[in-house]
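Exam revision sheet. Question 4 asks you to relate a sequence to its structure. Input first:
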Amino acid sequence: MGNLAVIIHGEELLNTELDSDRPLTHDLWCQSSKDGELQPIASARFVRVHDRKPFEAKIDDDGLKARLIFGQATADQAGKYRCEIKEESGANVFGNMFAYHHPTIFNNGSLSTKVSEDQKKIVIGDKVKFAEGEKAILLCPIIGYPEPDIMWWKDDIPIDETDAIKIHKKHLTIANFSEEHVGKYRCTGTNDFSLHVDGPAHTFEASYVQEAVIGGALGWILPLIIILIILLLVLIIIYSCAAYRRYKADNYNVEERE
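Answer key, structure tokens:
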């Protein structure tokens, strides 16, 4: 038994825009009872289910309650947790608990993003370039818990799967990118949960927009040229070092003969 669920007070829309004065997230807590009587806890931990990461529990002074302390939490801490208690009697008790967060755009530092000035629940990303005929993969960087349901749109028209276009949750794959696929792609993530115990469920939403364009079939040449230049420089250095060693050796042999 425990408080079952908490709401993470993390980011609003972008994980890079984190309010340092955001409120603390309530603790998840659990306890064990038998025949209506609370059982003393010997040890306890919480395990986040999706990545199996363990967290040490803080046990109350009376030894009857185990807590997972979030403090000032972030969206990536949301998820399903398993409370694992070992009673002083030796018995093991388990139970699932939840930490909710609305959909949020997760930027690991590789994206250039900005919030839309017209629609505050939309984040705009960089253009993505694909060579004509290339296999194109678009990623929807939305996180949250419950896991957001993802829908894809192109130029504000819902995308249906075809032989050439496949959708798997956060990934949209285009088999052979061409002029007809150029446009603005939007993924929208939605989830819902109650803000209060036994209260009505509320729906939350966030969207990410990226424009896909043709970047030219020869876009791979520049990286190749850079690699070839680096290899050429390495060969020149190796040859120069070898030539210098031969020169030193020749001079040494001449001095010995003299």
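Marking note for examiners. Residues 221-257 form the longest helix (37 residues).
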